[in-house]
Amino acid sequence: MPEVRTRRGLFAHRDFRLLWAGESVSKLGSSVTSVALPLVAVVSLDAGPLAAGLLTGAVWLPWLLLGLPAGVWVGRVSRRAVMIGCNLASAALFASVPVAGWFGVLGLAQLLAVAFLSGVASVFFDAAYQAYLPELVRREDLVEGNAKLQGTASAARVAGPGLAGLTVQTLGAAAGLLADAVTFLIATATLLLIRPKPGPAEAEPAGAGLVTQVREGLAFLLRDPYLRSFTLYGAAANFALTGYQSIAVLFLIRDAGVAPGWVGGLASVGALGGVLGALVARPLCRRLGTARGVRIVLLTAMPFGLLLSLARPGLGIVLYAVGSLVMVAGVVLCNVVLGSFRQSYTPPALLSRVVATSMFANHATIPLGALAGGTLGSVLGLRATMWAMTGLLALCGALPLVSPLRTVRDLPTGPAGSCPRA
């Protein structure tokens, strides 16, 4: 078996292979939905910038309400069972949109409800998913595992928006959501085939209540200079990213003169950057070091986002594509490295709580960014809002430099003074 692992890496690991296959298919469906859902609102329901921003924000609002306690609840039960339940709920929610459309009763209220409830499912799924990978693979394989998962997710986003555009042109926007529902069922089937682990991964402290456990995870994150600064960066970057993404479809169609069928293609170009970022994450970090590699990428890739605001009919669309390609490559590379760092650095007894707390902070700014994007788009105009949000994103790359990241070659493998992990 060792020699097979040398050639194939984690693809020789049965349970990882199942997780990877299911999530790749699910991400393909989700990438279709990321284009199809706002297009349902814009094309079928004639929604404006504010409605588009509210729709995007509704997906992420549950992180504000449930993000912190989710980490505690997920730590008490089987993470695999949580992921299965969330997938089934999401399949039912997205299938309801085309059904309502076929009966002629689809409205903005239902789209907002589906967006919000699918966001609730995502809160629990993501908290379980981030803490589940260390149960499946060895600590030293986490970067490889995250790179493979995020790389294929980005590859799915290359094909997904293009597929969404084709679906919208031929069958209507709501049909894309039905395809996403099917992919959630496929992901559920692969999770059911994974061998269950005996017992929860984290020991629950005797007599510790929900508030106490939430406070422990929060205190650990806030005390640690690495986790604290990386969380601040993630929160600020997500605000800016969602701020422009919430109006990107409207901007491309109404200001840049892009046909609805081509919107998905442009999104695919950006997703290709995610594939490149995941592919180069391991070799770049081996050559430069994990900390130095992240430092360089943050300072060089983020400013490329400014090119998105220059998009215009004709060749001006190339600037949008180039900016999106480089910026997304940098974002995904940093996600791979920093996500693997958090999984290996955090003590196992705190992992799901620290993961959920970090994701709560990172995701809490997303609905705010969506609301800000929609509001500014209505007041200042779509292009001015794109400039404001991509400019903020360029500045975010400097935030991790307030941590020891600016002085070290490699990120540490554990907190100072912590006991080695088995």
Question: Please, could you describe this protein's structure?
Answer:
This protein is mostly helical and 422 residues long. It is built from 14 helices and no strands. It has helices spanning 2-8, 14-44, 49-76, 79-102, 108-136, 142-170, 173-193, 210-223, 225-255, 260-288, 290-301, 316-345, 351-379, 382-396. Helix 6 runs antiparallel to helix 7 (173-193). The longest helix has 31 residues, at 14-44. Mean pLDDT is 81; it is low at 1-5 and 417-422.
The oligomeric state is single chain
Give unreliable regions as ranges.
1-5, 417-422
How much helix is in the residues?
over 70%
Biggest sheet: strands, sense, closure?
none
Structural class: mainly alpha
Q: Hey, roughly how much beta strand do the residues contain?
A: under 5%
- Rg from alpha-carbon coordinates: 21 Å
Run of helices and strands: HHHHHHHHHHHHHH
Shape assignment = globular
Distance between the termini: 21 Å
